[in-house]
């Protein structure tokens, strides 16, 4: 007996069309499920509380080995420290009684292992006697200290201020405890997205649907990440990144599907059929693009870089949630507002047709202009991107320190006072550990003091069991200067081997400054493998989808070009100080994080544009027509999606945190280059030059590769 024929009002489609069909018919249930999930996750995360933890441990590096030695031998330097910096123009001896009372109170606070007063250590007072510092040794690393304990130290120290005495607190623990951010960036991103969507669709309801989908997804993802922080190591800077990245991706994915939905409505489909066809076409693109982003982000886990693994997992979870919301929640919202959206879309289409301004006319004209002169268009665009990418060749990786903090923070003021009183290198000392007897420690100290680039070296300080000697080396240059990096490598490559040969002791160079450089060096070493794996897997997926050799190669090269252009802009602004920004290194983990996010987003736009070209090619076998119609159909939505991403990511630059500013600039520039220069100029020019060879796949390979259908024709 033949199988029953599907009902005429619900034609058979793919799995995504069936999913849309279910969500539209059961829109109440779909909306209720998402609302319940959001409420449950939010309440659960509030009840459990967050367990964010920064983990910058790098097994196998000298700095980590030095930390492990401190811990094993019971050295007080196994924990981090807070500097309480004092300044009095009459000399810090004047307020001595008040300062000593304050230091005694600090010594009784939770998390404090030891307090060393400047009045018992002459080296802790500047030559003119006006600046001094007390060292508060903590019983844990800075990232493990509860913020409330560090805040108590800051408040107690500041209580001694007055009568000409200035008191500031510095150190990584203090920087972590200070609140430098605000919800300004997130709010600006939401408002900007709503404005652009409103201008694009001319309707508040139509604009609100993609944004509402994104907000539901991001709200759920944030709660899940709080819960995940109890299982995985998730850094405390993850939530703001997750919020804005999730908002950008969520609006982006929902917009691509919603735009296809409008296309189907204008071509005569009823709302239910339009929803099925939109999901069966653009929904597949979103699913593929989301999987590509998740693969790229999970590739970061393989780098083995502590907190970066938790950030990658959190962002992958966010992308997965936004993708699910676009495929399930969005069709339900479309069904809920179907009547109002349909009336507006048809009215807008009729008005445009009456004015002789059909959909895609300007983009069709742009494609035609590029096709007339594809080679000049290609060369001008590529040369511009290469020029912007050039500064990457001199990129220095590192970490922002207190010298990059806002001038109003106590950590920045403590940094400036220490540099004023003791020299620029005082804020970034190197800790040299000698595993040997006291004689070996003294010999190593003498060698270090004679080394070029060293301003001063402290006396060798033995550990409690006498097995270690520690020398604090103060560079002549500031922590972020190239001179400090050169000194670190000189100590490890030249000074330490010679001293080990002379004394027979084992020598390690550690400390926070060395650990930062070790992290940057590790990223640089592992980056090529990470890029190769992500690009290789993505190219293989594109080959399966488009059954082409040249399309994946083109996509990979252009995606890399947009990423290097973004990194070049970051180097110009933050490393070279363009626009008055304080110069410093690029945050060490940002290049790999930006690569993973931008590569996935670029693949998103690539698939959306080229799949429409491929659809026209399969229908007409006219490659010039396919290029024109592909850009005409997708140019507006790609530009709008790119504009939303740019303003959402650009909102990061409103943050007071330098790392978030760099992150926002890099992502915004990458999307700007990709959505405008690459997708609207370079891709049409290349596709025109390649002609029918763009869709060529060697016959032996074509027989072996499985067929993966990405786009279903609109009339399926």
From TrEMBL:
Q: Which InterPro entries match?
A: MMPL_dom, Mycobact_MmpL, SSD
Query: Per UniProt, which keywords does this protein have?
Result: Cell membrane, Membrane, Transmembrane, Transmembrane helix
Q: Report how it sits in the membrane.
A: Multi-pass membrane protein
**What domain of life is recorded for the organism?**
Bacteria
Compartments in which it is found: Cell membrane
Q: Residue ranges of the SSD domain?
A: 207-336
Task: Name the Pfam families for this protein.
Answer: MMPL (PF03176)
What are the TM regions of this chain, as residue ranges?
29-48, 187-207, 214-235, 241-259, 286-305, 311-338, 378-399, 529-550, 557-576, 588-610, 631-654, 660-682
Q: What is its main location?
A: membrane
Report the family membership. Answer: Belongs to the resistance-nodulation-cell division (RND) (TC 2.A.6) family. MmpL subfamily.
Task: Report the protein name in the record.
Answer: MMPL family transporter
List the lineage, top down: Bacteria, Bacillati, Actinomycetota, Actinomycetes, Kitasatosporales
């Amino acid at each position: 007996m033949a199988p029953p024929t599907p009902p005429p009002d619900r034609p058979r489609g793919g799995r995504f069309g069936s999913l849309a069909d279910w969500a539209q018919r059961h829109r109440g249930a779909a909306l209720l499920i998402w609302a319940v999930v959001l409420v449950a996750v939010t309440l659960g995360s509030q009840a459990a509380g967050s367990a964010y933890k920064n983990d910058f441990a790098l097994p196998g590096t000298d700095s980590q080995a030095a930390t492990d030695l401190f811990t094993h031998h019971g050295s007080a330097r196994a924990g981090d420290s807070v500097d309480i910096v004092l300044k009095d123009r009459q000399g810090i001896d004047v307020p001595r009684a008040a300062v000593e009372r304050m230091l005694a109170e600090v010594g009784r606070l939770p998390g404090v292992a030891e307090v060393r007063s400047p009045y018992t250590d002459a080296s802790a007072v500047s030559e003119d006697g006006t600046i001094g510092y007390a060292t508060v040794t903590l019983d844990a690393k800075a990232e493990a200290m509860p913020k409330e304990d560090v805040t108590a130290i800051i408040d107690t120290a500041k209580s001694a201020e007055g009568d000409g005495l200035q008191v500031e607190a510095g150190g990584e623990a203090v920087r972590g405890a200070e609140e430098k951010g605000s919800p300004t960036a997130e709010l600006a991103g939401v408002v900007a997205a709503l404005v652009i969507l409103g201008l694009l669709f001319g309707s508040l309801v139509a604009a609100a649907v993609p944004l509402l989908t994104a907000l539901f997804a991001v709200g759920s993802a944030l709660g899940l990440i709080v819960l995940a922080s109890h299982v995985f190591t998730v850094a405390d800077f993850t939530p703001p990144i997750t919020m804005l990245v999730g908002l950008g991706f969520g609006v982006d994915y929902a917009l691509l599907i919603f735009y296809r939905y409008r296309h189907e409505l204008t071509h005569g489909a009823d709302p239910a059929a339009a929803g099925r066809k939109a999901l069966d076409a653009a929904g597949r693109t979103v699913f593929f693009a989301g999987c590509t982003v998740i693969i790229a982000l999970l590739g970061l886990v393989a780098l083995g870089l502590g907190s970066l693994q938790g950030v990658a997992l959190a962002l992958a979870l966010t992308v997965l949630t936004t993708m699910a919301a676009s495929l399930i929640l969005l069709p339900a919202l479309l069904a809920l507002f179907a009547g109002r959206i349909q009336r507006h879309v048809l009215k807008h289409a009729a008005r445009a047709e009456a004015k002789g301004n059909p959909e895609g006319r300007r983009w069709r004209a742009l494609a035609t202009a590029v096709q007339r002169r594809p080679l000049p268009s290609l060369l001008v665009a590529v040369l511009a991107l290469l020029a912007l990418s050039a500064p990457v060749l001199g990129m220095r990786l590192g970490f922002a320190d207190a010298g990059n903090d806002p001038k109003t923070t106590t950590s920045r003021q403590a940094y400036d006072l220490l540099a004023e009183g003791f020299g620029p290198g005082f804020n970034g000392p190197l800790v040299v550990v000698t595993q040997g007897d006291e004689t070996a420690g003294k010999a190593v100290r003498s060698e270090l003091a004679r080394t070029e680039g060293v301003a001063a070296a402290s006396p060798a300080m033995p550990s409690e069991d006498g097995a270690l000697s520690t020398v604090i080396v103060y560079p002549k240059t500031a922590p972020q200067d190239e001179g400090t990096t050169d000194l670190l490598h000189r100590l490890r490559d030249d000074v330490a081997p010679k001293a080990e040969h002379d004394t027979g002791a084992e020598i390690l160079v550690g400390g926070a400054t060395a650990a930062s450089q070790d992290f940057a060096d590790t990223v640089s070493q592992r980056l090529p493998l990470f890029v190769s794996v992500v690009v290789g897997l993505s190219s293989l997926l594109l080959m399966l989808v488009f059954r082409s050799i040249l399309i994946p190669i083109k996509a990979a090269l252009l995606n890399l070009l947009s990423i290097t252009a973004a990194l070049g802009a970051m180097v110009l602004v933050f490393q070279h100080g363009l626009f008055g920004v304080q110069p410093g290194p690029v945050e060490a983990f940002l290049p790999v994080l930006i690569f993973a996010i931008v590569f996935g987003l670029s693949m998103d736009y690539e698939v959306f544009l080229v799949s429409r070209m491929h659809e026209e090619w399969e229908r007409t076998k006219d490659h010039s027509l396919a290029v024109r119609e592909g850009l005409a159909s997708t140019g507006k939505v790609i530009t709008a999606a790119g504009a939303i991403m740019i303003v959402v990511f650009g909102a990061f630059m409103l943050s007071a945190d330098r790392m978030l500013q760099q992150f926002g600039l890099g992502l915004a520039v990458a999307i700007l280059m990709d959505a405008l220069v690459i997708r609207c100029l370079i891709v049409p020019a290349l596709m025109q030059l390649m002609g029918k060879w763009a869709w060529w796949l060697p016959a032996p390979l074509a027989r072996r590769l499985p067929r993966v259908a990405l786009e279903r024709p609109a009339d399926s």
